[in-house]
Design brief:
This protein is mainly beta. Helix content is 14%, strand content 37%. The chain has one domain: Immunoglobulin-like (Sandwich). The protein contains 2 helices and 8 strands. The strands form 2 sheets. Strands 2, 3, 5, 6 and 7 form a 5-stranded antiparallel beta sheet that branches. Strands 4-1-8 form a 3-stranded mixed beta sheet, with no helix packed on it. The radius of gyration is 22 Å and the shape is globular.
């Protein structure tokens, strides 16, 4: 009987200490409204641990092929995320600005968060991810640029 109790206790300790697998999520972002097929889409995903936008959790640079494209981020833990998109038309890796500090290339944020005198906050752009998630971002261009 002591042996049986010892086995049960040992097995319960093994199963109690076995780490549980965290299920990951996939986010598909539909980037729409690109005004041409020049350059790249620079798309960054943020998890709220740093400055938004700033150092992203992950950055993808995708060559523009059409006015609407799907970009996928995989293996994300469930939680809140925010996206920033730049249509880098000239491929220099930056969002170009005019002499007044206005963007001359397209940009956008998740949740349709608006840039007013600077980028929106993480909270304004954040959306929940749990399992397969789809999100839509319309790229904006400042008038006349």
């Amino acid at each position: 009987m002591k042996t049986l109790i010892s086995i049960v206790i040992a097995l319960s300790l093994v199963f109690a200490s076995t780490p549980k697998e965290v299920e990951t999520s996939t986010v598909t972002i539909r980037v729409d409204g690109l005004r041409n097929t020049n350059g790249y889409i620079n798309i960054s995903i943020y998890d709220g641990t740093g400055e938004f936008p700033g150092e992203p959790l992950e950055l993808k640079e995708v060559e523009v092929e059409s006015s609407a494209m799907d970009i996928v981020f995989e293996d994300l833990e469930p939680g809140s995320y925010a996206i920033a998109v730049v249509h880098d038309e000239n491929g220099n890796g930056d969002i170009d600005m005019n002499t007044y500090g206005m963007p001359t290339e397209g940009f956008g944020f998740s949740n349709e968060a608006q840039a007013e005198m600077g980028p929106p906050s993480f909270d304004d752009a954040a959306f929940d991810v749990d399992g397969e998630t789809e999100h839509y971002i319309e790229v904006m261009y400042m008038q006349g640029f």
